[in-house]
Amino acid sequence: MKRPRRNAELGLIILAVLLTGGLYALAGLGRSASLPANIFPFLGVILALFGGAHIAMRILAPDADGMLLPLAAVLNGIGYVFIARLDPDLAGPQALWTALGIGAFVGTLVVVRRARDLERYRYTFAVLGVALLLMPLLPVVGRNINGARLWVRAGTITFQPGELAKIALAIFFAAYLVEKRELLSEVRLTKGRLPDLRVVGPLLLAWGASLVVMTAQRDLGSSLLFFAFFILMVWMATARGAYLGIGFGLFAAGAFFAYSTFEHVQTRVGIWLDPWPKADGQGFQIVQAAYAFGSGGFAGTGPGLGSPGSIPAVATDFIFAAVGEELGLLGTTAVIVAFVLIVASGLRIALRADQPFEQLLAAGLTVIIGLQAFIIIGGVTRLVPLTGLTLPFMSYGGSSLLANYVLLAMLIRVSDDTARRARRQAS
Amino acid sequence: MDRQIRRVGVALLALICLLFVQLNYLQIVRADKLANDPGNARKATRDFNRERGVIQTADGVVVAESVATPDGKFKRLRRYPEAALFAHVSGYLSFTFGTDGVEKTYNDDLAGRSVEVRDVRDVLSDRVRTGNVTLTLTKGLQQVARDALGNRRGSVVALNPTNGAVLAMWSFPSFDPNPLAAQDQRAVQASWKSLQADGSKPLLARTFRERYAPGSTFKVVTAAAALERGPELVGKSYPRLRELDLPRTDANLPNFGGSSCGGTLPDLLKVSCNTGFAQMGLDLGAERLAAEARDFGFAARPPIDLNGPAASEFPEASSFRRDEPALAKSAIGQQDVSATPLEMALVAAGVANGGVIMKPHVMGEVRDSEGRVVRSGPSEPWQRAMSPANAASLRDMMVGVVNGGTATRAAVPGVQVAAKTGTAQTVGDNSHAWIVAFAPAEAPQVAVAVIVESQPGLGDTVTGGRIAAPIAQTVLAAALRTP
Lengths: 427, 483
Known about the structure:
The complex is a heterodimer of chains A (427) and B (483).
Chain A: H1 4-32, H2 39-60, H3 68-86, H4 88-111, H5 117-120, H6 122-134, E1 142-145, E2 148-154, E3 157-159, H7 161-185, H8 197-216, H9 220-238, H10 241-261, H11 263-273, H12 284-296, H13 319-352, H14 356-380, H15 398-426
Antiparallel strand pairs in A: 1-2, 2-3
Chain B: H1 2-29, H2 31-35, H3 42-49, E1 55-56, E2 62-68, E3 76-79, H4 87-90, E4 93-94, E5 98-99, H5 102-105, H6 107-111, H7 120-124, E6 132-135, H8 139-149, E7 154-159, E8 166-172, H9 185-197, H10 206-209, H11 219-229, H12 231-234, E9 238-241, E10 243-244, E11 253-254, E12 261-263, H13 265-271, H14 274-295, H15 324-331, H16 341-352, E13 356-358, E14 363-367, E15 373-376, E16 381-384, H17 388-404, E17 418-425, E18 431-439, E19 446-452, H18 464-481
Parallel strand pairs in B: 1-6
Antiparallel strand pairs in B: 1-2, 2-3, 4-5, 6-14, 7-8, 7-19, 9-12, 10-11, 13-16, 14-15, 17-18, 18-19
Helix pairs in contact in B: 8-18, 11-14, 11-17, 13-17, 14-15
């Protein structure tokens, strides 16, 4: 049987691998005026990784969308080159995590043979999600890094379970909202008719608990992402504009509360409005990022030729600023376009899906990736106040990479299910 | 649900469009401003890490060079082997405090940005493209100037009047630029702080960034104004007076030391006659005197290739309209007139060079690493202050000042020197000792200006003739010995 999507995917993956390899070679030339010694092994390894993922898709999800994997590959590749160039000590771990991430991608496709199977385990996922979120608060394994308690340590590995929690909670919300959306749609604020507490109870519980936990961990980025994600999920499930209104009101109230209560929130807003007076202090990071973007200009300094090393957390949250400096507006635009394409592919999968759960799940997962990219890129470019989040597929960080590959696998699973059903009906 | 999903898509797309707009703002609209913001260390880091050319004197002594450092934040460090001797000319390259002096003016040459790329091999090869700057100054003359001034606060500027090349430019106190170019920025900041806190202002390049009342050296300009713009005054004999009765005030203007003097212009200049020149200033009027001062470069920043030269000042003509005593005092270089030592050297150079002041410069030439000349110092006129004939007349008068006037101590055996001394009163009884001079009078090769600032320990009678003239004499003699 012909698989035109798979062949296109293979072509795009080879393109992504060549692009990554070229960037890697240029970064090596920029740093030391010589080609990296391991350029061919490097090319071989990434080709093997993404080629492996591609073969897995031919077997496990042959009818799925062919854009997502190459897009993830190119973002992952650019991210890796920058991480290796910014801090060679992180290159090894990031390569390992990429391999593990692709392993998790394949593993998810193996385990989750049909997306709708997930629907049955909604409460398991709810408990799992909240448990994952709570893990860093445990006394022995929990770790505090940079003022936020998001990490769990086991042996030499630190892990951010919150990244995976988002996916678990997305599954729960999608399943629960689809089940109860009739009841939830009955809400009429003007007539004072509120939804039954038994219906909204579990929802509010899971949502509230997550928000409280994230706030307690001082993880502003995740709180914001999760809040917006939840409101959009409810709105998509019920088509009731009232929920958007309530959501916006709650957001305003929550933002005001956070601003007036937490000093670190005030600081963030202050340096967002005007970081320059504090360029040597709290505004240092954002000002250094602005310098990086400005120094990059239109075409960038060239890979390996800039000095984005002056930006704190440049390999993780601020990796986009390094791209801005060394690849210029051309590079940042390319990255943005890649995210636009991921969002477009994800939403197309959601629109094509014929099961409401799959629709909502695919849309929700896409919203997570799209919003997360917007919040962190907006924060780094000072479009919105800075809240720490990783840039999906690009930032250094195993948990983030792993979680995003699992998320990708879910989208692909939904896509494959839909296409397969459509073909079965046609034949 | 489809409609909602589509709307979410549109909303996400709108947000990402906002990102694109913001990126254009950062990377296009504000790019230059951000890239060159003083807080952006990228340019400095680049300049620090890359190969950088040498600054050397005309007699081949290295003043600034880059040395590789085995460890530390920067791959290379800037070293100044001559320490304080050329600090105000070479300036410094400091990661924290930026650049100054030749390091700043010729940064692009030294860093290799301006040296022409001729073919593609130049781009691909590792060939060093940095430029080396050769100064017009010599270590020999700079040392003579330093030793002659000794531990007295002041300045010595020597230049070639025919082309504007600066031959020596020393001011005391100076500073060692090496600590400012060091690796450890904490130590750099400490050095900077202690230099800033030093009351004797070692960081200040007094030669071209500090202004003083020029005193009687300014009479050269007043005399030039009479020659150029007051033909009726050239032959006029001024009465012998002890002091001049100034209009509209009870305070009279006395001669130095209470002596009496008078006569025609050459007589007045020889003994530096205050009463005569003050009256001449009143006779000329504000318009003509201010115009001549402007022609000598007052009110403009000299176009020297060092950053931040101070503009010497002569008040606008209109400011004297109701203040004739001020005009009289300004004609003898007091009151609101102020000049940098560089400007007074340029005044002398203008007279020496037939009335034309050449553009002052410290860069002799810039060569690329293969020795090809990339650029060389300008030999261009800056101001036309006098006609050649009037300049010759003024020169003869200044010869008289050396041969039997106030500047006898500036005379160099075997060479005819032309000069004018100045003793500018500062607060109280203190005075700055000045002299401007050039030699040989008939074919000038060097013009100098010397100021010894008013300070304790200069002795009882501080005059330009006693304090500054011997310094000028030493520098002129040395400059003529080593062309």
